[in-house]
Design goal:
single chain, alpha+beta, ten-stranded mixed beta sheet
Length: about 400
C-alpha cells in the first residue's frame, strides 16, 4: 500500500491492516460459511473493542454507517445473531495465533528498550484477574455458592517505564489456582519474573532457582526459611538481607536464595525471595513495587476495552473475547510505537475512537499537534484584605462599594 492510500484511509481500516489475518480468509477454513469469513469476523470484533461498540445491535448499526469498512470486510450486511453464533464457533487457537503475531510485532519494535533503568532490566509480571459471569447461564464456570467466574492468567512485559504489554495469557475457569497458572506462564526468558504471595510455593521456588529463571516473589510472613547468612541493615525501611533455603523436606535438594525484608510507609511487612544476588536491597524493593503495573493494566483493560461486558456465556466465546481485547490493546500500542507519539495509551485510544472513520492523516496531525497556548497561565495575585460584609437582612448580603481614588 502506497503512502497516499494510507493517509486517506480511515483510522480503523489502517489499524485493522496491521492484523496478519490473510490465512483466515482461506476457502478451506471457511468452506461452510457463505459470506462471513473468519478473517472478517475477527476484524469486526477487534473494531468493536477499539470503537467501544456496546452490543451486537450497536455493531450492526456502526457497520451499516461505515460503507467503506463494510466493503473492506467483503460484506454487504451483517446481523447480530450471526455474530453471536460465530464468536462461539471460532477456534480459540486461531485468535491466540493472531495475538502472538501482534505480540511479535510489538517485540520487534521494542527490542531496543532495556526495561527499567539502573541495571534492573526487563520485568515479566505474572498475576491473574477474573471476570464474573451470570450464574444461571454459566454453570460450567461455577466456583462456589454465589461465585461464578473465569480467570485470565497474564504475563505482562515491562519493556520500559512507560511501555508494557501482555505477551502471554492463560484463560481458565475460576477454580484454576495461581500456582497452576504460573506453571504455564513462568518459563525461560530474558526478564525477571515478579509475583505476589499467591505464587509463593517452595517447590516452585526451588525449581526456578534450579533452572536459573530470574524471579522476585513475595512469601507469606509465616513461611518457614532456613537461614544460611543474615545481615541486619540500618535502613529506614529495609531491615534484613539474608541468604536462605525455602522448604522443610530433606527428600529434595534445596537451592540457596535471597530474602529481603522491608516495611512500607504504613508499617506492613514484605518478605521478598529472589535469586537476583546482583541487585541491591533497594533495587529489589523497587522491583516489587513495580508489580503494581499489572494491576493498573487489568484496570485499564476492563475500563477502556470493556472486558467486563461479555459477548458470550459459553467457554469458547469467553476465551475468544479475552484474546480479542488484548489484540485491540496490542494494536493501540503498535500505533503509539509506530507514530512515536508522546501521548499515553489512554490518549491514543481516545483519539482512535474520535477519528475512527476519519482519514489517517487527520489522526496523525492530531497525535503530533503542538499546544497553541502562549500565555503563562494563571498568575498569582497578591491577596487583598477582604472587606467586611454587611448583612442587610436574613437573606441578602451587601458588600460596601470601594471609594474612587482621587486624582
Amino acid at each position: 500500500m502506497n503512502k497516499n492510500n494510507i493517509i486517506h484511509q480511515s483510522v480503523i481500516r489502517q489499524c485493522l491492516s496491521l492484523l496478519p489475518t490473510e490465512k483466515f480468509s482461506c476457502p478451506l477454513l471457511n468452506y461452510d460459511q457463505k459470506k462471513l469469513t473468519a478473517d472478517s469476523l475477527i476484524k469486526i470484533f477487534v473494531a468493536a473493542q477499539l470503537g467501544k461498540w456496546e452490543s451486537y445491535a450497536d455493531i450492526e448499526e456502526k457497520l451499516r454507517a461505515d460503507k467503506k469498512l463494510l466493503k473492506s470486510l467483503n460484506l454487504e450486511s451483517i446481523s447480530g445473531s450471526q455474530l453471536s453464533r460465530r464468536i462461539n464457533e471460532l477456534p480459540t487457537e486461531w485468535v491466540q495465533y493472531l495475538f502472538f503475531q501482534v505480540v511479535g510485532q510489538i517485540r520487534e519494535r521494542t527490542k531496543q528498550l532495556a526495561g527499567l533503568p539502573k541495571g534492573i532490566g526487563r520485568l515479566a509480571i505474572v498475576d491473574s484477574t477474573y471476570l464474573r459471569l451470570p450464574e444461571q447461564l454459566s454453570n460450567w464456570a461455577y466456583v462456589t455458592k454465589g461465585l461464578t467466574h473465569v480467570k485470565m492468567h497474564t504475563r505482562l512485559v515491562v519493556a520500559s517505564p512507560d511501555t508494557v504489554f501482555p505477551d502471554r495469557i492463560l484463560p481458565s475457569t475460576g477454580n484454576v489456582t495461581d500456582f497452576e497458572g504460573a506453571d504455564v506462564l513462568v518459563e525461560e526468558c530474558d526478564a525477571t519474573y515478579v509475583m505476589d504471595r499467591g505464587f509463593a510455593c517452595h517447590k516452585r521456588i526451588n525449581r526456578w532457582a534450579k533452572e536459573e529463571i530470574s524471579f522476585i516473589v513475595r512469601i507469606k510472613e509465616k513461611q518457614q526459611v532456613m537461614y544460611l547468612e543474615r545481615t541486619l541493615l540500618n535502613h529506614p525501611q529495609i531491615r534484613l538481607d539474608a541468604v536462605v533455603k525455602i522448604g522443610v523436606t530433606s527428600n529434595e535438594k534445596l537451592y540457596p536464595v535471597r530474602l529481603v525484608e522491608y516495611s512500607d510507609e504504613q508499617g506492613h511487612l514484605y518478605r521478598i525471595v529472589t535469586n537476583r544476588f546482583d541487585l541491591s536491597p533497594e533495587q529489589i524493593m523497587d522491583i516489587y513495587r513495580h508489580r503494581w503495573a499489572i494491576e493498573i493494566f487489568f484496570k485499564w483493560v476492563k475500563q477502556h476495552l470493556r472486558t467486563t461486558k461479555i459477548w458470550s456465556t459459553k467457554p469458547q466465546g469467553i476465551w475468544n473475547q479475552m484474546f480479542l481485547a488484548l489484540i485491540a490493546y496490542g494494536l493501540t500500542l503498535l500505533v503509539k510505537l509506530m507514530t512515536q507519539t508522546k501521548k499515553t495509551m489512554r490518549e491514543v485510544l481516545r483519539l482512535i475512537r474520535t477519528y475512527f472513520q476519519k482519514p489517517w492523516k487527520e489522526f496523525w496531525d492530531e497525535l503530533h499537534r503542538r499546544g497553541t497556548r502562549t500565555s503563562k497561565g494563571r498568575q498569582k495575585i497578591p491577596k487583598k484584605e477582604k472587606a467586611d460584609l454587611i448583612f442587610a437582612d436574613t437573606v441578602a448580603m451587601i458588600k460596601p462599594k470601594k471609594d474612587k481614588k482621587k486624582s
